[in-house]
Amino acid sequence: QMIEVLLEAKELAEKERSRPPESPVIIDEETIQRIWIKFADIVLEGYAMNPPPPSPAEGKRGRGKRGKVLNLLDRLDRYGGEIMRYFEDLITPYDNNQAERDLRMMKVKEKISGQFRNYEYGQAFSSIQSVISTVRKQSGDMITRITLMVEDPQTLGQQLARAGRPE
């Protein structure tokens, strides 16, 4: 049931992102409330079906083992706002695939060579990767931007920052 609610919210958010400005709003307050009520009802139903474990036997310390389902319910309950952020804040993506891709090159470099020779090389590699990733996300001209990075990095930083701001 939770998967269905999350996918419904994702579909609504994608439609809202792609709708023309002059067309009616897809995610209004009523839709937000409906999705949140479904989300909360599923979490409450999950707690009803999976009560906390009994206290440990006499002489043992701590609390009883909670299990995967109860731990998932706790996270859904505690971090519901973060989980559903993509639904209400349309700038936030549904998944973190882009962040994973951004980190992949650094991990590959780390695995192949084990480390950078010194701190400055690591910083330089990170800076170059950051510019490449940002230019790729903004669909900019890579050669022009890399040339500008070498010739005038401050101007490049200002251009990338301006292009990334929502209007």
Distance between the termini: 37 Å
pLDDT < 50 runs, ≥5 residues: none
Average pLDDT works out at 84
What's the SSE pattern?
A: HHHHHHHHH
Helix percent reads 55-70%
User: Which structural class matches the secondary elements?
Assistant: mainly alpha
Largest sheet, if any?
A: none
**DSSP E strands, number:** 0
- Radius of gyration equals 23 Å
Strand content: under 5%
Number of helices: 9
Global geometry: flat
Description:
The protein is mainly α and 167 residues long. The chain is 69% helix and 0% strand. The chain has helices at residues 2-18, 29-49, 67-78, 80-83, 85-88, 97-113, 119-137, 142-151, 153-164. Helix 7 packs antiparallel against helix 8 and helix 8 packs across helix 9 (153-164). The longest helix is centred in the N-terminal third of the chain and has 21 residues, at 29-49. It is flat and about 70 Å long. The two termini are 37 Å apart. The model has no long low-confidence stretch (mean pLDDT 84).
Outline the fold blueprint.
Layout (H helix, E strand, L loop, with lengths): L1 H17 L10 H21 L17 H12 L1 H4 L1 H4 L8 H17 L5 H19 L4 H10 L1 H12 L3
Helix pairs in contact: 1-2, 2-3, 7-8, 8-9
Short structural summary:
The chain has 167 residues and is an all-alpha fold. The protein contains 9 helices and no strands.
Q: Which terms would index this structure?
A:
9 helices, single chain, 167 residues
